Protein: Cyclohexanone monooxygenase
Organism: Lentinula boryana
Amino acid sequence: MSKSEFYDVLIVGAGFAGVHQLVNIRKLGLTAKILEAGSDLAGTWFWNKYPGARVDSPMPIYQFSDPDLWKDWTFSEYYPDWKEIQAYFQYVDKKLGIKQDVSFNSRVVSAHWDDSVDRWTVTSEDGRIFRAQFLSLCTGIASKHHMPEIKGIDKFKGEVHHTSRWPEKYDFAGKKVGVIGTGATGVQVIQELAPVVAHLTVFQRTPNLALPMKQRKMSAEEQQKLKDEWYTILFGRRYQTFSGFPHDLVPKPIAETTVEERALMFEDLWEKGGFHFWLGTYTELFTNQKFNKEAYAFWRKKVRERIPDPELQEKLAPMESPHPFGVKRPSLEQKYFEVYSRQNVTLVDISKNSIEEITPNGLKTSDGVEYEMDVLVLATGFDMVTGGITSIDIRGQDGISIKDKWSDGVRSYLGVASATYPNMFWIYGPQSPSSFTNGPSSIELTSDWIINCVKHMKENGISSIVPTEEAQYAYSELVNQLGSVGLWNGAKTSWYLGKNIQGKKTQMLQFPGGIPTYAKLCNESAAKGYEGFDLKRTGA
Ligand code: NA7
């Protein structure tokens, strides 16, 4: 049997959350180790290296808020790509010596709790054993990729690549390429591949109500000026807005607005680009069907202006919205809608003619048409939000795996911990605000809360903490209730509700109440001595 290593805290994942945890646990004078499945830092940006992969949050908000880090780092674009984010993580490592406490190529397969000694025993795929008082799951929302089961896929003579497992060497130039999926990833990879390949066939099930990214270069001088005058204010603002961006939803009731006011608002938000049109508009976008339709009509008009062909217009920006605007995550695009007017691009609407099978030479749809291709790209997404956690065999006080426990729905307290799994926390995962918000904003909020909790426990002789069933029930009901009001349920396949994975329980997987409300709940529990948790004192 291999010898085990002991740490105060074991962290799973070396993206933004894992690195933030490590740095701040060190500050408490405790020991920590990150176990990372990949061979380098950057989390989602380690895995997602397909052409065009870039973040949908603008600078400067998508980075650590620590001034010691941002003062010496400059991004070149408003929305940086994966290469630049990877370089940023290398810079953070140089500054803070992260890698010395990371075990790379260490995929965690199990974590079992021992109630008699208040310890986790964690095993990695290569058979190494680690023990720790605390387990911090920083696995992100998109770590388990989704490979759809399509008849005949094993018979295909060409290559098949999921976007999050992009081939280092494959040259797409001159190839016939098929892409399944038009989510955030599909949009990015499609607009990048189209000019490079001989032919691109896109298989679209649901049109993406994508918004203009308004990407631009950022000079070092511009950023220095922002650093001098704005960074502190912008990072402070993160916790005051619904989505952790500097802009916010507008609570003014639609009934008190005029049509002219709304038209001007739409135009202004559109010009600003990014998520402004989604998360900077009137809050009623998510509850008021009439207003939502008005927003969709504006979006459709703007998009149709960019598509000359009426048939393509109807496929990409249909008269009838496929779902209420914004209840499925909109993506940010650059020239995406122009791509389909290219001679070398074909758009196949598989909501009408579904995928029948993959043949040795391509893909056949239900109308009998076969589309030939050399390579098939699966931009088919992930077992979002829960997949990173449920793919580890995690067993708590009652020995039941979290996968089994959550088979009839996720339950948590404060989107950070679950009853019967003591001293286990997660960041940016189930029932937290996660991707309704800017990643690092939510991540730092939760990570700091966990650090303060561990500090409190160490200072007060508390050896374990676990949510009570009652508090968990109440919190989970709150998330379910917030997710059941309004228009959220209007999208057939949204991953927000787990609807993209067959057999997954339909429920709102993220906290849809915004950062200030979420932070208030977390802080109130802490202020009341971690109300809603059972605390075990050392020696008790
Ligand atoms: P998404 O947003 O889940 O998109 C997956 C896409 O793949 C979407 O267009 C799906 O169509 C399509 N899809 C999935 N399975 C199938 C099958 N079996 N047949 C046809 N089409 C399919 O994943 P992304 O990687 O784009 O983005 C995930 C998140 O990562 C993103 O929101 C950001 O937060 C970062 P559908 O729309 O369900 O009809």
